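Hi all, posting the design record for the shared folder.

TITLE: backbone redesign
STEP: 1 of 1
STRUCTURE INPUT:
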């Protein structure tokens, strides 16, 4: 497959040519992030399975699991999981709207993208407050 047009131009045909030819847009960044959070959520599901197995195995195993989640790396994993979960949820709703033909105009796509980011920050922060800061 050639990367030049039939007129002999040196311009690439694919918008995925990162570099001087293509500037990432909000829609493409959110699409890539949606895929990345999906992968991260699969890893988080394994963490959840570990927690369930530790709970079933007994008090000492579950205490070890809780200690791992309380470590700095475990806390970072929980924070990443919470924000990934909310982002994937809200962006999934956005995609469902697109599937029924709503919000496909460029202005709507951008406003819904910003709404996804704001809702993710609000819902994720509220969830983390409930997990860590609520007394």
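Okay, here is what came back for every position:
SEQUENCE:
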């Amino acid at each position: 497959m050639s990367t030049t047009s039939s007129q002999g131009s040196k311009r690439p045909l694919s918008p995925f040519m990162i570099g001087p030819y293509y500037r990432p847009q909000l829609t493409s960044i959110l699409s890539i992030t949606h895929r990345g959070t999906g992968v991260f959520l699969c890893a988080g599901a394994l963490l959840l399975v570990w927690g369930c197995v530790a709970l079933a195995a007994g008090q000492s195993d579950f205490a070890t699991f809780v200690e791992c989640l309380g470590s700095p790396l475990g806390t970072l994993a929980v924070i990443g999981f919470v924000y990934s979960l909310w982002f994937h949820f809200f962006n999934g709703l956005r995609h469902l709207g697109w599937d029924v033909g709503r919000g496909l105009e460029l202005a709507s796509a951008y406003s819904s993208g910003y709404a996804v980011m704001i809702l993710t920050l609000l819902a994720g922060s509220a969830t983390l407050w409930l997990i860590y800061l609520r007394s």
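COMMENT: Residues 61 and 92 are 35 Å apart (CA to CA).
Let me know if anyone wants the other runs.
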